Amino acid sequence: MIRLLAYIGALFFFFFICQQHTSAQVRLSGMVADQETKTGLPFVSIINKRTMTGTLSSESGRFYIEGMPGDTIEFSMLSYTQRQVVMPGMSSSLDIYLQRRLFELQGVNVKGSNYKKDSLAMRDEYDRYFRYRKPGAVDVLKTLPANPITALSYLVPSKARKRKEQFHEQLLYWEKEKYIDYRYSPELVGKMTKLQSPELDSFMHRYRPGYQFLNDATEYDLLLFIKQSFAEYQRTKGK
Question: Cα dihedral angle (127, 131, 135, 138), rounded to 10 degrees?
Fold first, then answer.
């Protein structure tokens, strides 16, 4: 009974310390939007560079993230230029506008040989997030004898764990998106269709293939997909 009371007391002390730490944090909220259209951007990656924790913007572009005053917050999304802001001294609201990046066909090797190297480097840098999984009942039972405070904390909802789960999902999502960009490149599609930006950008967005298709498709399958998509695009262009 004395040991149980000690565990409970230590647990309350642990949550008190966490609460004190949380109270020193501030919240930045607002909307991430396209700079030209002013429309909200969904699933923008929002990372606290100090803690390497992050979140995603909602379907309407709304977001919030917590941190310490002075932390650097990075906003990034495929086809958009990254932007960084400094966490203010108190909780506040701020709208973030991202500038779209247009594809360039000349002088840029979009489909290069460094894709695998870049992918491995990203997995090495964010290794603990790629390997992260939500703690379950087995984790509680295994951890309880050696570290009861950590084990009991698994049973309590945690914003930090929620952010780690979201960041884990986000990393997997962007890894798939980069693989799509690697195979379904502007250079390849431009050669097949003879389109140029901005029409090329519009065509690629409209007929962007899924990750599972590209993961299973041969080079012939991909070229046939682009050819058939372009034929449909030409048929519907005048409608």
Answer: -130
β-pair partners for 34: 98
Give me the chain's average pLDDT, please.
Answer: 78
Q: Which residues of 64-85 are buried (b: 16+ CB within 10 A; e: fewer)?
A: ebbbeeebebebbbeebeebee
Give the HSE-up count for residue 115: Cα atoms under 13 Å, Cβ half-sphere.
16
Token pair belonging to 193: 């269709």
> In whole angstroms, what is the distance from residue 25 CA to residue 88 CA?
10
Task: Tell me the percentage of the chain whose pLDDT exceeds 90.
Answer: 32
Residue 98 near residue 77 (C-beta atoms within 8 A): yes
User: Is the CB of residue 78 less than 8 Å from the CB of residue 97?
Assistant: no
* Cβ density class 117-126: b for 16+ within 10 Å, e for less: eeeeeeeeeb
Q: Where are the alpha helices (DSSP H) in the chain?
A: 2-23, 115-125, 127-130, 137-143, 148-153, 159-183, 186-193, 199-206, 211-216, 219-237
- Among the ranges given (84-93, 118-127, 168-177), the one the predictor scored with the smallest mean pLDDT: 118-127
Q: How is the beta sheet containing 72-76 ordered, strand by strand?
A: 53-56, 45-48, 72-76, 83-86
Rounded CA separation 102/174 (Å): 19
The pTM score is 0.45
- Residue 46 to residue 137: CA distance in whole angstroms: 30
What are the pLDDT digits (tens) for 89-106? 999 999 999 998 765 444
Tokens of residue 204, six digits: 């690629």
